[in-house]
Design goal:
alpha+beta
Length: 202
């Protein structure tokens, strides 16, 4: 899971100055900036793109700002506290594979613990079976939770312009399409040419 989730590159100083001129951002209060929306047309739907104060840019459709990572993520699903990373466009398939492997491991330990308990059911071996009971109690609810989470991510569909209206096509679209190249460069340094352009445009 040590993958880049789809961080959207922050605009350069030049791009920010152009954005300021276009939307007159200097005259807008922070509260108004929070509610600044830019409408674009996607498949006969009007998609509202919000302005991100932290990244100082208008976010692309289906992207969101993660306050923990302090970056805008393309197709952000959630920030996973267990993996300590965002789940977005570029690592969603790896998250699904992680859930599948976790479910398989939970079921393996649950079934083998159950078999072990049924094989050694005499009273003398009860004390020896305490670790097996412990594994059974831990892996049972864990397998149920993982199964629910996996089912939610596989079947859940949201009404939006990008939806295919079939859960298996939505899942195939997320898992089987090629990944775009990483756009991570949010803290890059500006070069001399860009600096000259900034001075000319300000």
């Amino acid at each position: 899971m040590c993958t880049e989730p789809g961080i959207i590159q922050r605009p350069s100083v030049l791009e920010r100055s152009i954005l300021n001129k276009k939307f007159h951002l200097n005259r807008i209060t922070p509260d108004q900036l929070n509610n600044l929306i830019y409408d674009i047309q996607v498949n006969d739907f009007v998609v509202k793109c919000k302005y991100c104060i932290t990244c100082q840019m208008i976010r692309s459709p289906r992207s969101s700002h993660c306050p923990i990572c302090s970056n805008c993520i393309a197709m952000l699903d959630h920030h996973c506290p267990f993996l300590s990373t965002c789940i977005g466009m570029r690592n969603y398939r790896f998250f699904i594979l992680f859930l599948l492997c976790l479910l398989q491991t939970d079921l393996f330990f649950f079934i083998t613990s159950l078999i072990q308990i049924f094989i050694s059911n005499d009273k003398r071996s009860f004390l020896k079976s305490i670790p097996t009971y412990f594994i059974l109690i831990i892996t049972g609810p864990s397998a149920l939770y993982t199964c629910n989470l996996l089912g939610y991510h596989c079947i859940y569909t949201n009404e939006n312009p990008f939806n295919t209206h079939r859960w298996y096509l939505n899942l195939a679209q997320k898992l089987c399409t090629s990944l775009p190249p990483s756009a991570y460069g949010a803290h890059r340094l500006i070069n001399q040419t860009e600096y000259q352009l900034i001075k000319e445009n300000i």
